[in-house]
């Protein structure tokens, strides 16, 4: 049931700790509660030169 809700809301999971995160506004740069930084659009770890193909 949670996974269905996450799919409907288009939540992403942190690649490191698998916690669900939701982007409400702003850029695609996400910092999870485990402190892992990743791209909300495509999933890999974030870097200052990241180019997301989803934008």
From TrEMBL:
Domain of life per record: Eukaryota
UniProt name for this protein: Uncharacterized protein
Species the sequence originates in: Pistacia integerrima
